Amino acid sequence: MNSRLPAGYNPVRPFRDPAAVKALLQRIESAVTRPWSIMEICGGQTHAIRRYGLDELLPDSIELIHGPGCPVCVTPAAKIDRAVELSLRPGFLLCTYGDMIRVPGSGDSLATAKARGGNLQSVYSALDALQLAREQPDREIVFFAIGFETTSPGHAQALQVAIDEEITNFSMLCSQVTVPAALTMLLGDDSHRIDGVLAAGHVCTITGSNEYHAIAERFRVPVVVTGFEPVDLLLGIADCIDQLEAGSYRVGNSYTRIAKDDGNPVARAALVRMFEPVDMEWRGIGVIPGSGLGLREEFAAYDAERKFQFESRIGSHDDQSGCISGQVLRGLATPERCPNFGQSCTPATPLGAPMVSAEGACAAYYQYARFE
Questions:
Q1: Pairing between strand 92-96 and 140-147?
Q2: Which residues of the chain fall below pLDDT 50?
Q3: Is 337 exposed, middle or buried (0-12, 13-18, 19+ CB in 10 A)?
Q4: What's the pLDDT score for residue 372?
Q5: b/e sequence 113-132, b meaning 16+ C-beta within 10 Å
Q6: 48 neighbors 335 (Cβ within 8 angstroms)
Q7: Global confidence as pTM
Q8: Do 232 and 15 touch, CB atoms closer than 8 A?
């Protein structure tokens, strides 16, 4: 049990315990002496914060700002265009996670492509897509592989199985990204408002927290690993505030029951074996050097972008929808500042990915709205 938890802590539903939440809020309020802005990287953290109203329970001097940690939100329009193009080809089946289906590319989404006759299958994992390749050897099965370091080891596993079983009608369209590269970009921008960072616990469960030490030292910003329950998040915020008030900056871990300093060695080894760092475009942000995980050259036969020819080009596409997702993902604006929020942009009629994704900040603000 974490020694910083208050007396009377309820072990039955420990990480939503009201007494622990109250004690942590009191601890934070007594510690803070000036305004601080803390960014939660992950969209799952944003949803938990809004769901439990933590942003309103905290002192007014603490501002929580939202980061680019939603994989659906940062998938570039150009990649979606290529997924759409593959889904419309005869003899092809495009597989991906359900969140991606309604996200618009520069034109169509996968949903509208399916309405035009495209072949599309929602799957829970890359292994599900691989099973379809086994069952349908006469079709090209392409898995649209999106995500951060949390989902990428599963993609690596599916790829290894495909190689071992010599399944040749399976490939991946990769749009995988990494947190440290994005965080380095954000903190290196002179316009940022980030005093402290809440790192995503599930990412650190894979990668560990060791790679954040250099970031904390370089930018003099505390980075604290947290989970996704109220007590997890408040422990991380309390650690950030303690460091900021003391003028220190180190990597903390408020999610020690799951995340370890060195992460999961087996998963990390799988990532290194199958993928290599590549420059990647982040939707609304631009190209971040070395922020992507692309298939290594020796696995080119399983790389959809090397295996097939495309009409659509890779490169930045201007968003003409009026969506301000880039500002939201960089922590420069909150969703309700968008003039389209809740008006022309709703979950039923999304203008951008943050309103579509289950981890999108706009979806969190809409779903857990506390206003008329």
A1: parallel
A2: 1, 3, 317-318, 372
A3: exposed
A4: 42
A5: bbeeebbbbebebbeebbbb
A6: no
A7: 0.90
A8: yes
Which residues share a beta bridge with 170? Answer: 141
Instruction: Go through the domains of the chain in sequence order and give each one's CATH number.
Output: 10-372 (3.40.50.11740)
Closest CA to 345 of 327, 370, 365: 365
Residues 184-240 have pLDDT tens digits of 999 999 889 999 999 999 999 999 999 999 999 999 999 999 999 999 999 999 999
pLDDT in tens, 149-185: 999 999 999 999 999 999 999 999 999 999 999 999 9
Lookup result for tokens 């998040």: 233
Contact 15, 230 (CB under 8 A): yes
Instruction: Please report how many Cα atoms fall inside a 13 Å half-sphere around the Cα of residue 308, on the Cβ side.
Output: 24
117 φ/ψ sector (left φ>0, alpha ψ -120 to 50, else beta)? left
The three state secondary structure string of the chain is CCCCCCCCCCCCCHHHCHHHHHHHHHHHHHHCCCCEEEEEEEHHHHHHHHHHCHHHHCCCCEEEEEEEECHHHHCCHHHHHHHHHHHCCCCEEEEECHHHCCCCCCCCCHHHHHHCCCCEEECCCHHHHHHHHHHCCCCEEEEEEEECCCCHHHHHHHHHHHHHCCCCCEEEEEEEECHHHHHHHHHCCCCCCCCEEEEEHHHHHHHCCHHHHHHHHHHCCCEEEECCCHHHHHHHHHHHHHHHHHCCCCEEECCCCCCCCCCCHHHHHHHHHHEEEEEEEECCCEEEEEEEEEECHHHHHHEHHHHCCCCCCCCCCCCCCCCCHHHHHCCCCCHHHCCCECCCECCCCCCCHHHHCCCCHHHHHHHCCCCC
Cα 5 → chain centroid? 28
**197 in Cβ contact with 222 (< 8 Å):** yes
Residue 111 burial (CB count, 10 A): 16
Centre a 10 Å sphere on the Cβ of residue 300 and count the other Cβ atoms it contains: 12
